[in-house]
Specification:
By secondary structure, the chain is an alpha/beta fold. Helices cover about 35% and strands about 15% of the residues. The longest helix is centred in the first third of the chain and has 17 residues. The model has no long low-confidence stretch (mean pLDDT about 85).
Length: about 200
């Protein structure tokens, strides 16, 4: 099933990829949304943030702090939906320790490559990054104990597909720790067709 939002979904995804490739490659650039380590500190990120390489933290583009919903426990299997440059995934990897695992998934190849380099630099072996889309997660049923996500679900028009995919890959009783943008009023048809409103 596809969702009609009055916009070309392929074009929307292409523009989102361009925006976040730029965040990955040019983190010092001014974006319409806040980015970087200082922003993560302002959001109250946990102490593990201080251990991350600068080039990873400077490409942070989250909207809030999913760890305010609770620390991850040692040994948990975590999926980071829309992992970007890897800030949340690497923090999660430090929290769950060697007995746990973290998988970050992102549709932007540049972000995946940057996250992989951050994991190597940090020396964590319990985290992997894959390229893929949230609507069709390429993982088996009941593969994860926890899903974290930060500022990603709002960018995806087909929310039903995303949550169906999340439900499938979480274990029964698994938890979701999502930080995201919500609106109080419906968006007009004209507004829904403006790519810039989707991509930030």
């Amino acid at each position: 099933m596809s969702v009609d939002v009055g916009i070309d979904i392929g074009l929307l995804k292409s523009e989102i990829k361009k925006t976040y490739a730029s965040v990955s490659q040019e983190p010092e650039k001014d974006f319409i949304f806040p980015t970087g380590r200082a922003w993560a500190v302002d959001l109250g990120y946990p102490a593990e943030l201080s251990q991350l390489p600068d080039h990873i933290a400077e490409s942070f583009a989250g909207v809030a702090n999913p760890f305010l919903l609770g620390r991850l426990e040692p040994g948990e299997r975590v999926l980071d939906l829309g992992s970007g440059a890897g800030t949340d995934s690497l923090i999660a990897a430090l929290m769950v320790g060697e007995l746990g695992s973290v998988t970050g998934i992102d549709m932007t190849p540049e972000m995946v490559a940057k996250a992989q380099s951050g994991a190597a630099e940090l020396g964590v072996s319990n985290v992997t990054f894959v390229e893929g889309e949230a609507e069709e997660l390429p993982f088996g049923d009941a593969s994860f104990d926890v899903l974290i996500s930060n500022g990603v679900i709002d960018l995806i028009p087909d929310k039903d597909a995303v949550f169906s995919s999340i439900y499938r890959v979480l274990v029964p009783g698994g938890r979701i720790q999502v930080a995201d943008v919500t609106i109080q009023q419906p968006v007009s048809e004209e507004g829904r067709r403006k790519i810039d409103l989707w991509t930030g």
